[in-house]
Amino acid sequence: MSSSMMRDGGSVGAAGSGDVLSAGGYTVDIDALRSTANVVLGVADRVGSVAERPSMQFAEEYGYSLPPAATSWAQRFSYLIDGLAGEIEHAGFELRGTATAYTEVDIAVEARARQLSSALDGSDG
User: Fold this and answer.
1) Gap between the Cα atoms of 105 and 82, Å rounded
2) What is the tens place of the pLDDT at every residue in 16-68?
3) CA distance linking residue 37 with residue 16, whole number of Å
4) 124 exposed, middle or buried (CB, 10 Å; 0-12, 13-18, 19+)?
5) Which stretches does DSSP call E strand in the chain?
6) How far is Cα 5 from Cα 17, in angstroms, rounded to an integer?
7) For residue 101, how far is the Cα from the chain centroid?
8) Backbone angle region of 22, left / alpha / beta, with phi > 0 → left and psi within -120 to 50 → alpha
9) Is 64 or 71 the better-scoring residue by pLDDT?
10) What is the CA 98 to chain-centroid distance, rounded?
11) This model's pTM is above 0.70
12) Which residues contact 82 (CB under 8 A, 6 or more apart)?
């Protein structure tokens, strides 16, 4: 399991500094999840920059029959790397969205617990 999600009882000490959500037998370090999302988005940017760099820019110097093949290969390579960057970026946004969803659930649960506590305190007195 990654450092951001592990079975209860595992140590999460160094994984994050703040928000740790524990439910259903799993512990999620929300800060570590958000940090991982940012790293993944940075990787997507770096991969995307590779797709923008010219490939086979000296293809015309390869002789008579190779330039068309080299140009075709460079276009396919750039297209595929750009697609890979898009997939990585999507994964980063999914991770970021998951961290946000965990945070929202944590806030909602805390608010509901306070509401129930207030209701119980009010009925006792």
Assistant:
1) 34
2) 445 776 667 788 899 999 999 999 999 999 999 988 888 877 777 777 778 88
3) 14
4) exposed
5) 5-7, 20-23, 26-29
6) 14
7) 13
8) beta
9) 71
10) 8
11) no
12) 48, 51
Q: According to the model, what pLDDT value does residue 65 have? A: 76
Encoded tokens for 57: 């820019």
How far is the C-alpha of 72 from the C-alpha of 78, rounded, in Å? Answer: 10
Report the mean per-residue pLDDT for the chain. 81
Q: Rg of the chain over CA atoms, in angstroms?
A: 24
Pairing of strands 5-7, 26-29: antiparallel
Token output for 106: 């944590």
Residues of the chain with pLDDT > 90, as a percent, come to 43
The three-state secondary structure class of 120 is helix
Calpha distance 49→69 (Å, rounded): 23
Is 60:67 a contact under the CB 8 Å cutoff?
yes
In the block, which residue shows the tokens 């999914």?
94
What is the rounded CA–CA span in Å between residue 33 and residue 99? Answer: 6
